[in-house]
Amino acid sequence: MRRLNRKKTLNLVKELDAFPKVPQSYVETSASGGTVSLIAFTTMALLTIMEFSVYQDTWMKYEYEVDKDFSSKLRINIDITVAMKCQYVGADVLDVAETMVASADGLVYEPAIFDLSPQQKEWQRMLQLIQSRLQEEHSLQDVIFKSAFKSASTALPPREANSSQSPDACRIHGHLYVNKVAGNFHITVGKAIPHPRGHAHLAALVNHDSYNFSHRIDHLSFGELVPGIINPLDGTEKIAVDHNQMFQYFITVVPTKLHTYKISADTHQFSVTERERIINHAAGSHGVSGIFMKYDLSSLMVTVTEEHMPFWQFFVRLCGIVGGIFSTTGMLHGIGKFIVEIICCRFRLGAYKPVHSVPCEDGHTDNHLPLLENSTH
Question: Where in this chain does the record put each Endoplasmic reticulum vesicle transporter C-terminal domain (predicted)?
Answer without folding.
Answer: 162-331
